[in-house]
Amino acid sequence: MMKMGFKIKHRLKTMAEIDAIKNFIEENGIVSVRQIFYHLVARNFVKNTFSSYVNLDYLINNLRYEGIIPFNSISDVTNLYGKKQYIKVSNCLYEALENYRSNWNDKFETYVEAWIEKEALANVIYPVTDMFGVYLNPCKGRSKVSQVYNYIQRSRGHNDLVIVYLGDFDPTGIHISESIMEQFNKQGYDVVVDRIALNENQIKELPVSFQHAKRTDPNYKKYYAKYGDVVYELDALTSKQLKDLVFNALVTYRPLDKIKALENEDNEQCEHVKQIIETL
Q1: Which residues face 31 on adjacent strands?
Q2: Three-state secondary structure call for residue 198
Q3: Lower CB count within 10 Å: N or C terminus of the chain?
Q4: Do 69 and 151 lie in a common domain?
Q5: How many C-alpha atoms does 210 have within 13 Å on its Cβ side?
Q6: Structural domain containing residue 38
């Protein structure tokens, strides 16, 4: 009897966990597995351990296979190489129009991009950066020389350079702003790094990561003296929180009325081209 009672209790807990996962996805749209994990940790559904994370990943995959949650609700980073194929040329032209955007960057004094450490979360905030016509760069923590160089090439003609940055709160992460600015200085440019996540105020409300600060990190001793060996992951923020942070940061550089005017201009050009395509 004791054993059966345990099984029933375990089953009910799993069902409640599944409901929490479904509700979280419905509220936030596309999410990463780690976002779901920290959401469940904060609500005491799972323990904050690596093994719990692995078990959750397995559960989420099964929920996708069984159709309980949509396959495309989980942000997975995949790359597919090869030319896209079309039934006819006009289909390709119509798709090009759907993706068309004039060079909005030249319409603003400040050149701005959004950089995010976690590539899996890029899909989450992309709708916001795309709305403002801002490039999104998953930089995976440390800025590379080539990433900085390519940014400089894209920003030609602008004196004011800005990066809106989102990353983990760990020994490397809290120094990323200085690291990025140093890379730009070495190539002869100045940039403002607006770190909108994660910061000290935000982590007060977040669960710690199941991982720990790496002792091999050159910033470990300084970090440990102030925060200990706990770290916080960007995934602990919900999709809505991430989107709101990015929106509030970008709207200061690109006012909505200007964005709307640019959209209208692009739509007018596209309608004119569609009339030409229809004659082909």
Answers
A1: 74
A2: coil
A3: N
A4: no
A5: 17
A6: 2-73
